[in-house]
Amino acid sequence: MSGRHFLQIPGPTNVPDSVLRAMSAPTIDHRGPEFAQLGTHVLAALKPVFGTTGPVVIYPASGTGAWEAALVNTLSPGDRVLCFETGHFATLWQEMATGIGLVVDFVPGDWRHGVNPEVVAEKLANDTEHTIEAVCVVHNETSTGVASRIADVRAAIDSAGHPALLLVDTISSLGSIDYRHDEWGVDVTVAGSQKGLMLPPGLSFNAISDKALEASKTAKLAKSFWDWRPMLAANERGVFPYTPATNLLYGLKEALRLLDEEGLDNVFARHARHAEATRAAVNGWGLEVLCADEREYSGSLTAVLVPEDVDADKVRAIILDRYDMSLGAGLGKLAGRIFRIGHLGDFNDLTLAGTLAGVQMGLTLAGVPIDPAGITVALEHLQVAP
User: Fold this and answer.
1) What local confidence, expressed as pLDDT, does residue 385 receive?
2) DSSP 263
3) CA distances (Å), origin 295, targets 184, 218, 291
4) How confident is the model at residue 17 (pLDDT cuts 50, 70, 90)?
């Protein structure tokens, strides 16, 4: 097909041209002084994006690796952790926790709501012996388009007077939705490169609090590659204890420059505006947004419920075949029930307008009964100056 492919899944996202050009630079000696300057720069420039003044560790890995690093550096075999079934990825994280020898208290959910802070407070208040060592929360559940309220979760932990660590997955929210590691009292923030940071997959991150660093001194889960200690020691010199993803770090430097140039508050406002326009289109079509609580709407993606007699995957296939646009599939228990529209990263009004036009045409071709005024409602939102 002529023209570019529309990659509108909620990650990996479209990579800006300047980031691609930055990654095309020649690979350099990762033990030399030029690399040390690069490492020192990106390690410092990452901190404002996480909202922290503490250390941020970079792994050559996917976000799954950063999940494991958060757990093994802070916990010991048999430790009890509190997790919440907010979607597919929250489910996978708790499965990992179980697999590495932790005892998981998994609070069931309907995949349409985020973590309930009242349940957090109740669970921790009932844990009078403080056997729960950590609370694990996915900030923005990529499979559902539901964003849990981390500040409220922190307040719930504090209200219970509980010492549990707070571990938060921001893989599809960092650089897209307002996030404040220090202010919200998060102990380990997990992130990946391929979404709001506008890079290809291949880098993952842990932002680490003082409390988490202290916990790491006694954590006994097995670790080697994921160990914070050699990473932090090497990072003081701008280098890494093993071979880093040099050219992805070139791209990271440029991506961080782009975020800084736009301003994080403007980045968050842009994502919120595009999310609002997308939801306006969905409602205008007469369809339903999966997220059931407007306080938890995601700025990164919108999951769309299709009628029960419609296969969402067939709709996605028609849109891919006819319009060369990829949309996110329903995962786990939502397979065939939803499709996901990614509107994060390197994204603007015209990209969203084209995306929503392709979705509307695809729904019509698939025989889904919709009101064609949906796109008009979205365009009216976009015509209002930000």
Assistant:
1) 84
2) -
3) 17, 38, 9
4) very high
CA 264, 134, 297 angle in degrees (round to 5)?
40
Distance between first and last Cα of the chain: 33
Residues in contact with 348: Cβ distance below 8 Å, sequence separation at least 6, in sequence order: none
Please write the tens of the pLDDT for every residue from 230-258.
999 999 999 999 999 999 999 999 999 99
Spatial distance between the Cα atoms of 202 and 99, rounded to a whole number of angstroms? 23
Angle at CA 281, nearest 5°, toward 294 and 13? Answer: 80
- Other Cβ atoms less than 10 A from the Cβ of 193: the count is 30
SS3 33: helix
Task: Round to whole Å and give the CA distance between 307 and 136.
Answer: 33
Q: What is the pTM of this model?
A: 0.97
Inter-CA distances, 335 with 168, 303, 328, 329, 347, Å: 25, 12, 10, 7, 26
- The CB-side HSE value for 23 (13 A sphere, CA atoms) comes to 18
CB 312 within 8 A of CB 345: no
The contacts of residue 161 (CB under 8 Å, 6+ apart) are: none
Backbone angles phi, psi at 50, to 5 degrees: -80, -15
How many CB atoms sit inside 10 A of residue 122's CB? 13
Task: For residue range 118-170, list pLDDT tens digits in order.
Answer: 999 999 999 999 999 999 999 999 999 999 999 999 999 999 999 999 999 99
Residues 6 or more apart in contact with residue 201 via CB below 8 angstroms: 12, 62, 192, 193, 194
Q: How far apart are CA 301 and CA 8, in angstroms?
A: 9
